[in-house]
Design goal:
Bound molecules: fe (iii) ion
Helix content: 40-55%
CATH superfamily of the largest domain: Iron/manganese superoxide dismutase, C-terminal domain
Strand order of the largest sheet: 2-1-3
CATH class of the largest domain: Alpha Beta
Number of domains: 2
Strand content: 5-15%
Length: about 200
């Protein structure tokens, strides 16, 4: 993970604004990345300024603020910066399909097969009530699991290693799918998921 400290910069997208169309339009990117994600970065920089958090990396800020009831705003904004950085990398143009190699074996071991995994992941993402995230994570024992988090919450705060995520806040899909979250999640899985990134995170 990056070791830079505040002030943080909005990450560069690893593809063009229209690369994820038609699932995620350039218009959605302009708001989701250009406004929502950018605002989390600005808020975080303003909040950590002249505090002990200013000397920490992004990941350290997330972990520390998760345990600090006086730092809820710092937690929400740092976690949302981390989650969105990770989300954009979890997708690519021409993604989807099936993982290869080590990740495929791990998924087969823990979920049966890739189709069953996708079904279970889709159910979890669609079933997350309200705003949040769905994740494939590796626990401390190395076992894979599907988890969901609410609002800004993140596996980073729970000592889990994230492999990929999808954002199920309405701002992620409403312009392109309106209320049809199941269709959006299905298209994320079949057309966008970046298995190479997930496999790299498995280590
Ligand atoms: Fe988002």
């Amino acid at each position: 993970m990056p070791t830079s400290k505040a002030p943080f910069e909005l990450m560069k997208l690893p593809y063009a604004d229209n690369a994820l169309e038609p699932v995620i339009s350039a218009r959605t990117i302009s708001f989701h990345y250009g406004k929502h994600h950018a605002t989390y970065v600005t808020n975080l920089n303003n909040m950590v300024k002249d505090t002990p958090y200013a000397n920490l990396t992004l990941e350290q800020i997330v972990v520390k603020s998760a345990k600090d009831s006086a730092a809820k705003g710092i937690f929400n904004n740092s976690a949302q910066v981390w989650n969105h950085d990770f989300y954009w990398k979890s997708m690519k143009s021409g993604g989807g399909g099936a993982p290869g190699g080590k990740l495929k074996s791990a998924i087969e071991k823990d979920f049966g097969d890739v189709a069953k995994f996708k079904e279970a992941f889709g159910k979890a993402a669609v079933g997350q009530f309200g705003a949040g995230w769905a994740w494939l994570v590796a626990g401390k024992d190395g076992k894979l699991a599907i988890t969901t988090t609410s609002n800004a919450d993140t596996p980073v705060a729970h000592g889990e290693k994230a492999l990929f995520t999808t954002d199920v806040w309405e701002h992620a899909y409403y312009l392109d799918y309106q209320n049809r979250r199941p269709d959006h999640v299905n298209d994320f899985l079949s057309k966008l998921i970046n298995w190479d990134f997930a496999e790299k995170n498995l280590g």
